[in-house]
Amino acid sequence: MAIIHNLGETNSVFNQFVAELRSVEIQTDRMRFRRNLERIGEIFAYEISKTLEYQPVEVTTPLGAVQMMQVVEQPLLATILRAGLPLHQGLLNYFDRADNAFITAYRKYHKNQDFTIRVEYISSPSVEGKVLILNDPMLATGASIVKTVKGMLAHGMPKHIHIAAVLASNEGLEYIKRNLSLHNITLWLGGVDDELTAQAYIVPGLGDAGDLAYGQKD
């Protein structure tokens, strides 16, 4: 069963960062686009951190000692290249001792303009018994997330899977619910849009996050 947290439903500075990602005027500044993705990753990390397991640890100060609650085990952070890199960095800024996994996935287009999702390479440590945080800025059809999760399971069975995406489509969320129903999954979103184009881009969305962050590809 998937649990969904849409942070965009609560008024906060988080929505300012999402609005700037969507804006065609502000999108022309690649550095700002990447930084806003990173900021959103930091907010996701803070919210996800509330769900982790904690234990008391004694900390020595210059004037004494105090018991502080600290995370028992750092999560494993995973990202789908290349668009996910800035979002991943935001998560890593907060979970700064976490292990990391990197996945190459892309759309393989066919002559009729249909496409399939191909996951070609996964670089990951063991995920057995760990909390896995997988990020991808745009959750459109949901196919790349599903294939990535199933690929990650070759490295072990995680205790819990968190999926962080800036924007999702209703169709993509339903696809994940259908295809990952046997896993403990929590989705963290910045917004949910209703439509997908024929090329499976989210509408109104924000465009191609990878191109906006790093430039157009052939």
Descriptive account of the structure:
This protein has 218 residues and is an alpha/beta fold. The protein has one domain (2-214): 3-Layer(aba) Sandwich (Rossmann fold), CATH 3.40.50.2020. The protein is 30% helix and 34% strand. The protein has six helices and 14 strands. A hairpin with a 2-residue loop joins strand 2 and strand 3. Helix 1 packs antiparallel against helix 2 and helix 2 (30-49) packs across helix 3.
TL;DR of this structure?
The protein is of the alpha/beta class and 218 residues long. Helices cover 30% and strands 34% of the residues. Helix 1 runs antiparallel to helix 2 and helix 2 (30-49) crosses helix 3 (85-94).
Write the layout of secondary structure elements.
Blueprint: E1 2-6, H1 13-22, H2 30-49, E2 54-61, E3 64-71, E4 76-81, H3 85-94, E5 99-109, E6 115-123, E7 131-135, E8 138-139, H4 143-152, E9 160-165, E10 167-169, H5 170-179, E11 185-189, E12 192-193, E13 195-196, E14 202-203, H6 209-214
Parallel strand pairs: 1-11, 4-5, 4-7, 7-9, 8-10, 9-11, 10-12
Antiparallel strand pairs: 2-3, 5-6, 13-14
Overall shape: it is: globular
**What oligomeric arrangement do these chains adopt?**
single chain
* Helical content (DSSP H or I, runs of 4+): 25-40%
> For the record, what CATH class applies?
Alpha Beta
- The CATH architecture assignment turns out to be 3-Layer(aba) Sandwich
In what range is the share of β-strand residues? Answer: 25-35%
Report the total helices. Answer: 6
